[in-house]
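JOB MANIFEST
job_type = single_chain_structure
chain_count = 1
residues = 410
[input]
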Amino acid sequence: MTFGFSGGSGSTGADTTLYVDGTAVRTCRANSNCYCYSYCLSSNGCYQNTRCVCSNGPISSSCSATVQLSQGRHSYQVTWPYTALVRAPCSRSCGTVPATGSVSGSFSVGPPPVVCNGNGICDGTETQSICPAECGTCSSDGICALNEPLTCSDCGAGKCDKDSICEAGEAGKCPSDCPGNFSLTVSPSVGVANRGDLKDVNVSVNLTSGYGYPVLLSAAGTPNGTTSTFTPASCTPNCYSNMTVNTSSSTPIGSSIITVSGTSGSITRSGTYNLTVLPSTGLLACGNLACDYPETQSSCASDCSTTTSIPSPVTPGEVVAVSVEFYDFRYLADGNVKINLNLDGTTVWSAANGCSFGGVKLGPSSTGGATAWPSGTTSENGHFKIVTLCTIPSSLSAGSHTLVATPTIY
């Protein structure tokens, strides 16, 4: 028989739980005593019974073979009373019982057994060997993942104690105590390509609540003969990644839906990209709703256009994500562009009043008199998109407004 206890340490005392053979049988209040009596009786055999009680007084003086332990301000007494009717030794750990005299026995005191609580988090004393459904291996990436044991270098006291309290130093390192949530947006959501073309797609990951943790990006449903790669492969919101869809001569003709997913811990968010692949023979005619080489906004306004996007409603002084996207084969990916932004046809939106990329010559690097593109930029021949943060001008009055973007190709 094994006796164990938890709690009860410290000079002020605390509640104590007493365990018998790994099962919690009694919880005593602070500064009281916990007693366990184990009886070995025999009547044509042997059986054992255990009774545990809490008491503020001493154990009965009629009990024999008393062994007393102490921890903090608690005492733990384990006693084996006996009877002279016992004719054979007990089969369990009560020891040999003589016809007269005192009884001897053995017991051990230790921590309570590890119990898998099933909350989906590897916490407390849970380990991978005992709780494989909740506990994994150590990653040593600076974040104490939900399935990492507290013994990992990323976890433990001072880093992440998994006590459901967001304490100093745990934000961004301890998703169990300082959780977060995010959204994922794919833009553009549709694309048309000839066999052998590359399509660049912007994947935006934004924090919606709590704290940000690395989000691993993946793609499913990419057609045969086609690859989808992310640069970077993971990022911490708010952030952007560029998904490059690379078709080949063997890519099937037709439409496919590519599902783009971002996973952080137990949270997964997804978006879709609808890819239509056309034959690679000859040039495509204007009017197929895809801006194909060598079409421009001047030569084929139905296929090539400029669009803007801004959240609504907004308030003066609010920082918002502004998106400008245009299709025009006068633009090459390694060239420069200037985008003039205009609010309501009267207000120029530039760095002077809150939007740093408005009216500025932008390029793939800060050379040739151009300012480097913001991190939310995707570009390929004939297609350009920029997503960045701007501040709503304080002079903007309440009501409906329009945002017009006019690109100039250098």
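[summary]
The two ends are 86 Å apart (CA to CA).
The longest strand covers residues 198-210.
exit_status = 0
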